[in-house]
Design goal:
The complex is a heterodimer of chains A (about 140) and B (about 375). Chain A is built from two helices and six strands; from the N terminus they run βαββββαβ. Chain A is of the alpha+beta class and about 140 residues long. Chain A has one domain: Dimeric alpha+beta barrel (Alpha-Beta Plaits, 2-Layer Sandwich). The longest helix of chain A has 21 residues. Chain B has about 375 residues and is mostly helical. In chain B, helix 16 packs antiparallel against helix 17. Chain B starts with a helix and ends with a helix. The chains are: A alpha+beta (about 140), B mainly alpha (about 375). At the A-B interface, helix 1 of A face helix 18 and helix 19 of B.
Chain lengths: ~140, ~375
Amino acid sequence: MAKYLLLKHYRGAPAPANDVPMAQWTPEEISAHVQYMNDFAARLQETGEYVDSQALAPEGTFVRYDGEGRPPVTDGPFAETKDLVAGWMVIDVDGYERAVELAGELSAAPGAGGKPIHEWLELRPFLTEPPTITE
Amino acid sequence: MNEALLRSLTPQVLAILVRRGADFAAAEDAVQDALVQAIRVWPDDPPRDPKGWLITVAWHRFLDATRADAARRRREDVVDEEPAPGPALAVDDTLQLYFLCAHPSLTPSSAVALTLRAVGGLTTRQIARAYLVPEATMAQRISRAKRTVSGVRFDQPGDVATVLRVLYLVFNEGHSGDVDLAAEAIRLARQLAAAIDHPEVAGLLALMLLHHARRAARTAPDGGRVPLAEQDRSLWDTGLIAEGVEILQAALARDRLGEFQAQAAVAALHADAPTAEETDWVQIVEWYDELALLTDNPVVRLNRAVAVGEADGPRAGLAELAKLDDSLPRYAAVAAYLHERDGDLAMAARLYAEASEKASDLAERVHLTRQAARLNARRER
């Protein structure tokens, strides 16, 4: 089994084919989209391939150490940040092909006009535990 | 197996172990072991005397653990002392457990976890799932919490306000997995109300009941939130509403107003209205005025602006809103609502979209995005 991270971006991914902001959809289209996402996660739970999924708020802060006895420095949020992660799903599947298949399915979630968004999702393999047999 | 019965027996069994001389942390571990075993064994082999069964199993677990501990200490050449007699328990053991588990030295998340386990009788796994953390993390949180309160005497009166804050958190936060945290919070609040006569305990219980009554109407099939005004009121649980109102009225009659009673009064006024249009907003504004005197929570003033908008018109509400800090959570959402009521749909749609980006939960985000979409669709038509 191999774990993969499916990353959804607010910004930074190539523009999808059906690129209409959600606030411009009809309320019914929003419902259909949410339903599709829920059904997708439920199906993966049933196949035993679902690990976790989370959505992130868009506003973040950069933080760094600023020396002994001083409070950490915070900076941001940066409006111009190129890459902005919106959320993720972690799956545990047999291999790369299955991961690509599932990411394709998730990317077909319906958007404006009830048509698939064709949203670009970033697929990243987890680094694994070292194998026991190495020779 | 009757899991509710099992859970309701937990604090009693724990108190008995402590009274027999077990220290709180060891007794709590032993009771947890007994609970886990009960969940496994009872379905096939239900005991005739569930409480007696739990006490026996928990006490044996405690003795086994103590002996293993003592044997280890002997091996390590540490002086083996007789276990110290535990502190005598106050008359009301359950109440003391509430105070201990909500002790001010605990962080809120630790107090919540310890309360759910020691008073609520939930397993570590159930609590971990409810808060979406690994079981090992939750186990560690609970054992650290027990270490934190290990020096606290059992026979000292605690502060009811800290217990109420913990129960409020249980009711209001957490993921609804296989354990219904809202129902659990209500059960714990009922048990507390039976143990202590206090108007704010009654106020919190009433508040929970009145909100719980609307639960079926609160969520859309897609998981989005249904706002109060749009809820199907026939789905409200009239039995819970009647009970909440009765408890609240008895509490208010004692003339010791507190935050939870005032919040419950607002909830009762909503529950009382057959339709959203018939809501008594003038009275609701008055209760928010009382609340503002009791607490400096800015969320109260935000909700008050909404109520003023309903009682005196959206312009009056917007004027109230203008006095508040626009970085408050849900400020944009309230502004959007008031602008929509005022007829400025373009502004409202823009503010709803802005508010959806600031939403702190998914149901709220879906709801606010949908509000923006609804107005945009209407404007295009």
